[in-house]
Amino acid sequence: MRIVGLTGGIASGKSTVSNLFKLHGIPVVDADLVARDVLKKGSGGWKKVVAAFGEDILLDNGEVDRAKLGHIVFSDPDKRQLLNRLLAPYISSGIFWEILKLWMKGYKVIVLDIPLLFEAKMDKWTKPIIVVWVDPETQLQRLMERDRTSVEEAKNRIQAQMPLDLKKTKADIVINNTGSREELNERFQRVLTHVSKPLTWSEFALSRQGAFVASILVFVGVIICRKTL
Predict the structure, then answer these.
(1) Helices (H) and strands (E) in the chain, counts
(2) Closest listed residue to residue 130, CA positions, set 176, 89, 161, 88
(3) Could you say which EC number(s) this protein's record lists (predicted)?
(4) CATH fold of 1-27+108-197, please?
């Protein structure tokens, strides 16, 4: 099984690339969606976060006000690190189960879409690693236009993440998304060809099909050994 790591920065276009993979039939495990699930009312993650940040972060229906929580953690590095520590075990478990379900369905290639791929040390699970990159000026402008935020708030959100230029140095594949959507589509097609190539032997061994072949070989080996004894 090939687990492709996909990451980027806020407003870099990572979600657009993620959707392109889905459109081409490659399943995506989205860490943001997993994070939403672990924050649902009554869940273990919800209890930890409410205990740490107080009930002021809750909406009237008891769910976490994600916008309010986001404002708190993006303006305070210590609280942001606290939130990451509280939710990391739940998010990791959720991602593992999503991967397992796709493995059971027989998918040979999946994409792991994680904004904090390097920060959470999950890059060790993935190969190749794709970073969606834009220049700082474009990133700032797109974020301000998308979220209708001030320059200061947009900069705080960008600075809360690992710099894209640093992520770029850790990538196997870099998708430059500074240009137009048409240019992005062209670059994506080249990336799609790369990640869709036949599995290596080690990747095949980790797939469901590989596990089946291995079990057959073990069974045959046992039968042969019994006959020769």
Answers:
(1) 11, 5
(2) 176
(3) 2.7.1.24
(4) Rossmann fold (3.40.50)
